[in-house]
Amino acid sequence: MSETATPLTPLFTARQIQQRVRDLAAEISAATPPGATIHLVGVLTGGFVFLADLARAFAQPVTIDFVKGSSYRSGTTSSGGVTWSLEPGGVAGKDVLVVEDIVDTGTTLCALHERLLSDHPRSLRCVSLLDKPARRQRKVPVDFVGFVINDVFVVGYGLDHAEQYRQLPFIAALPEP
Ligand code: IMP
After folding, report:
1. Is the full-model pTM beyond 0.90?
2. With b meaning 16 or more CB within 10 Å and e meaning fewer, what string describes 18-36?
3. 171 alpha carbon – ligand 1 mean position (Å)
């Protein structure tokens, strides 16, 4: 479906998202030692809008980095793995917060978690705007979740279908073709 087809109905409006992002920043701040710098590691491309809004909702200092990975399937198994076209920078001794757009199978987050842990951060937590638990294949730690959704394909607020819809200020379920 292209963006010129039937208009999409928001699943979460821009206003609902902005409120939830503010609440998430408050929850995360309350669970972080006062004055600590939070090192945000955004997962491209889908996480760029959420990270930009979340970063600006924090009162405390943040630093920002991005990673970009793509998952692949090894042989006939569905376990897969992830190759990084943009590698994580050094996180040793930092209070890291991974910022994901959506946790689906959990493959990306699982691989990123292992990768970051091997660099010995001081702490490692994850926030995902959306969580789609019905499709999970990997047990992954998601410390903060914006919205839990059913097994639907969603677009908007950074999330795409064939690179379209990322700029929408709301999130919508993409209708079946
Ligand atoms: P994973 O399966 O948890 O590794 O998720 C991999 C990536 O798939 C996510 O970071 C998203 O970019 C993408 N993805 C998963 N579900 C959706 C969806 O419903 N809409 C758009 N992208 C999705």
Report:
1. yes
2. eebbeebbeebeeebeeee
3. 13
